[in-house]
Every structure is written in structure tokens, then in C-alpha cells.
Design a protein that fits this description.
The structure holds two protein chains of two kinds. Chain A is α/β, with parallel strands linked by helices. Chain A has two helices and eight strands; from the N terminus they run ααββββββββ. The N terminus of chain B is likely disordered. In chain B, the strands form two sheets. A seven-stranded mixed beta sheet of chain B has the order 2-1-13-12-3-4-5, with helices on one face. Chain B has a six-stranded mixed beta sheet with strand order 6-7-8-9-11-10. The chains are: A alpha/beta, B alpha/beta.
Amino acid sequence: MSLRKAACRFGLAAPLVIGLALLFAGQRNVRANQQEKPAAGAEVKIDNFSFGPQTLTIAAGTTVTWTNRDDIPHTVVSTDGAFKSKVLDTDENFFYTFTKAGTYPYFCSIHPKMTAKVVVQ
Amino acid sequence: MTEQKAKDEIVYDHNRDGINRRGFLKCMAWAGTGAFCVIQGGVLKSYSLSRISEVAAEEMKGELSFVQISDSHMGFNKPANPDVAGTLRAAVDKINALATPPEFLLHTGDISHLSKPEEFDTVDQILKGARAKDVVFVPGEHDVLNDDGKQYLERYGKEAKGAGWYSFDKKGVHFIGLVNVLNLKAGGLGTLGHEQLEWLEDDVKHLQTSTPIIVFAHIPLWSVYPEWGWGTEDSGQALAYLKRFGSVTVLNGHIHQTMQKIEGNVTFHTAASTAFPQPQPGKADSPGPMKVPAEQLRSLLGITDVNYVRGKHALAVVDSSLG
């Protein structure tokens, strides 16, 4: 429990730490910081009308970044209402920090055939 | 009748619905390059645009003429069309050059690319250049981003019901504009929804079965290619309410290419975009914009001219490309 709490706290604090690092410490520390975060799968790419990876498994506290690589706008909308992005034009991002374990299915509300999920452990 | 013309007509009609697979594919093969399909007595006759001069004069005279435009995507600025304002202006020029001036324009949605006020403003401004002053709209999914269509309703749907659906009559033809781009469910297709379907049932209840019906909506009301979301979940219910009518024409956009299908008394037709072409169903990894050489672009964009001749079974629907 305490571990999970710590992970959670780290996740929330991470953007602040990175921000401070950028301001005061330069590129090197940023890289060091990113290595401490769960390295794999904190990013989802939207390409060719699909989310990749289709299933993203992360630790609680991880911030996921979605980037739209298509020429057409998309959205990232949780099926059960947990999160909802504004429309993302080409190369625009959406961030969401997952604090609780569970499975989070989501879709593009403009092209609802585009579905995927995030599994938080 | 020339030999070529005979070949262009549908010979096999197993379902007695006026269309066979070969004929349908033939219509599809002309997608974007311009096809001319006329329905007489429930039989589809189709000709390539190069032959239109032979039939146009006779077929195109009627009581009611209007032009459908679609998917202007104002704000889109990527390959293959960095100038969607320019191609919309070209569409207006094309409309103004028609032999039979249309009474009004019908825009089947995706007016804007990102629902930005300035995108709608630009389209309104360009369409003012058309000689037909009245424009009726239905929203596309790109027109209702971020606000569930509030801005769209304020601009184009003040007199409409619900999320923007409405009907009106012109020269004996009953027009019905439907909205199928809101409240889309994960994994699903376009949706009309219960409230709109109830309204539709009531709207057509008192009409005579001889009344010609024109239904228009953004996403196709027939299953074009569900894998890409090119269809509407509950369109079957809507069409059931229209079953008793002798002539129903369904006009859609969304798929950025022309297609036509006939089922009984219902003719389905999709219009080209004025902005960018999309691939034929399943012919690419995704339905994203087709990148084509600049000199080809305008041949894949277009407008649709619709003519109604009183007493004839159905409407003449003519697609023509912008270049």
C-alpha cells in the first residue's frame, strides 16, 4: 500500500520535478528523471485512424501522452467518462495521469471505430 | 440507342431493385470523375459524364433543381489540398455556370474542419458568391467538435428541432435534414437517436405516399463500409418510416467520393467533397485524406446537381467534378 502511495505521489510530482529540472538543471537531469519513470508505454500515438498501442499497460501514477500523427483531427474520450480531450489537430497532445488501478477503455468520439484501452496496474 | 449506351445500362437485376453488382461497381468506378445516374421507373441508367450532352437536355428539365455540396472542411491545409477555400470557390463557379440555375444549395456537413468560428465565416462568405442565395445545412462531425454542436445550432439551426434536424417542403417535394454525428458510441457508427427517430415518424405520418421525399444527412444512411464507420447504426428504423413512399432519395456526404445504390424505392447517393478525396472503401490503411498530384486534385472533387421532374418516378442526380 505504502509503495503504491509513494508511486502515486511520485507520479503527481513528476511533471513538477521535470519542470524544475528544465528550468535549473538542464537536459542531463531531465534524462535521468525520465529513466526513473516506468520507461515503456507512457505514450500513445494516433496514426492511420488507430491508437497505438491498442492496449497500454502502465503503473498507477503514470502520465500518458497521446499524440495525433494523422492529417485529420481526433479525440481521446474515456468510455466511462474518466477523461476527455478537446479535439486534437495534427501533432497536438493530450495528457492524463492515471492514479487508480483498473482498465480504462477509450475511443475517438469523432471516429468511434477507433477504440483502445489503458490498463493500470 | 448506341451500343455503348446499352452496355452502360444495367442488364442483370436479380433482386429486382434496379441495380446489380456490376452496375454498382461501374458507378463506383466513376467515383470522383463524374457519373450521371438517372432512375426511370425504378431502373437505374448510368452514363459517364462525357456522354452527358446526349441526355442532359431532356433529363435535366424539371420543376425543382438544387445543388448538393459537401465536406468543404474549411481550415484543412495539408496535402493534397492546401487551399480548400480555392476549391470551394471553384465549386461555386461551377454552380453558377449550370445551365439550369439551382433554387438553393444543400450542404451535407463538415462545413468546417475544426469547428472554428472563422472557418464557418469563410464558408458563409464564399457561398454568398453563389447565385442561389439560400443554403440549407446539416452538421458533420467536424462541425460539432468540443461543444456538442452548440455553435452549429446558433449559426445554422435556429429553426431546427433537437440537435439540428428539420423538414421543409418545396414544390411538392418533402425535404428532411437529419443529424447523425452526435453522441457517437465507442465502436459504433453514426447515430440518429430515439428522439430524432420519433420526430421523423411524426413528421412523415400525414404525408401522401406519392410525395417525393429527399432525406439528407452527413454520414451515409446505408452501410457503405462499417469498418471505417461509414454507416449509421439506426438508419434502418428511419428508412422503415419512409418505406411506404413511392420515391425516396437519400443524399449524404462524409466519404468524399460519389456512390450510388438503389433499394426498392430508395435511392442512396453520396456526394464528392469540395476539399480532398478519400480512398475507396478498404483500398487504403485508413480513410485518411488521399494524397494526389496537384493536377489531379480537382478531378476528384465535385458538386452534385439534383433535378426533380414532376410525374417522373425519381430524381436525376448528376455529379460533376471541379476540374
